[in-house]
Amino acid sequence: MSTHSEHRHSCKRRGAIVVYVAASGVVLMGFAALAVDAGRLYLGKTELQVAADAAALAGANELLNERRLHGDGELLTSFQLARQQAGAVAGSNPVLGIGPQIDYNPDNGADGDLVIGYLSTMYNTGEAISFSDVTEFNAVKVRVRRDATHNGPVGLMFARVLGIETADLVAEATAAFHHGIIGFRAPSETGTVGLMPMALRESFWDLLMGTVAGENANYQDNYAYDPLTGQVTPGQDGLPELNLYPGVGEEQLPPGNFGTVDIGGDNNATSDIERQLLEGVSADDLSYHGGELSLADGPFILNGDTGLSSGLKDELDAIIGQPRTIPLFSEVSGPGDNSVFTIVKFAGVRVMDAKLTGAMKFKCVLLQPAIAMDDGAIFGGDGTTSEHVYHPPVLVR
């Protein structure tokens, strides 16, 4: 039997345990509270990065608009619309329930939240964005913030007991594209690249681009492309057309060949060319060339086909208005399917019209300069191996 004194000491010990358990509960609740706030901040940071990534990509894609084809006069409009598009996309990606707004930085200050400039080596994080030549701008950097200046700091719930009421969050992203396309390989995502199984003489492409720049008047502008609808109609859009078939000038193409080339074999059947026009050049086609067509080691050779069959009319009609890449050749030898083309460059084009029957003077495959983006494009050149051909913008930082 315990004495009264022993009972009193036992109560004291139980009381100490009760106090200890109560104190431990407070500590555990504190840790739990901090964990809730930490989770909220983690979610906010993740959502902020998503908004920055999407905004940078949207801005860079806007820089690749068809306006680039019309020369320097359209650049300022492109920059303005790129800022607007980046801002709109950022705002459509809520961060903890708030659509973040970004400062458009219209003066394009290097420390701004939305900066447009040029990156020569896109994945070199040590390279600063350059502003020396606006015609080369290929990068959009976006900073999205939740702080006292922009969108308000993130309010905390349980950290207030520690005197911490809010926290600032910031995320940055840079998206860029490269204009130095040196070749093509089939990407795993789509399995095809948008190469036309045709070839165009480089000097005639240069004449076309000279016409675009107002340096000569070799070609006429009789068709208009509407970038909003993707439709081609008779009219003018400021971009002249070149006739691939039968060509312009005595040396456009060799006798018996009207521009078709073999990509994927020595003698492509008409069915192969039809497929390549509609669906693109496949990995199987490119395997014949070692997996890719590239100017990395200099010009390469493509064999010619016997001509442009009237049976291709439907396929050409089906891709009118769609951007494609066409190989440019500097030299060609041999007639018909014995012709050999020396490929030196790639160019972005779209088919505007095709007539393959009737009198020779009415036959045509009219091409217009176009912005051609291709996931299979291999970049890394100095810009002399391609014109208006790009790999789609990617996140680089």
DSSP helix count? 6
What portion of residues is helical?
Answer: 25-40%
Supply the helix-strand structural class: alpha+beta
Main sheet attributes: strand count, strand direction, barrel closure: 7 strands, mixed
Order of helices and strands: HHEEEEEEEEHEEEHEHEEHEEEEEEEE
Terminal CA distance? 77 Å
Stretches where pLDDT is under 50 for at least 5 consecutive residues are 7-23
> What's the mean pLDDT score?
86
Strand content: 15-25%
**Approximate shape:** elongated
Total number of beta strands: 22
Gyration radius, rounded = 31 Å
Count of discrete domains = 2
Concise summary:
The protein has 2 domains: 4-176, no CATH class; 181-395, no CATH class. The protein contains 6 helices and 22 strands. The chain has helices at residues 4-63, 75-91, 202-212, 270-279, 283-287, 313-318, and strands at 114-117, 139-146, 154-155, 166-167, 169-176, 181-185, 192-193, 200-201, 223-226, 231-234, 242-243, 281-282, 292-294, 300-303, 323-333, 340-355, 364-369, 372-373, 377-379, 386-387, 389-390, 394-395.
Fold and architecture overview:
- α1 packs antiparallel against α2.
- The chain is elongated, with a radius of gyration of 31 Å.
- The chain has 2 domains: 173 residues, no CATH class; 215 residues, no CATH class.
- By secondary structure, it is an alpha+beta fold.
- It contains 6 helices and 22 strands.
- 27% of the residues lie in helices and 24% in strands.
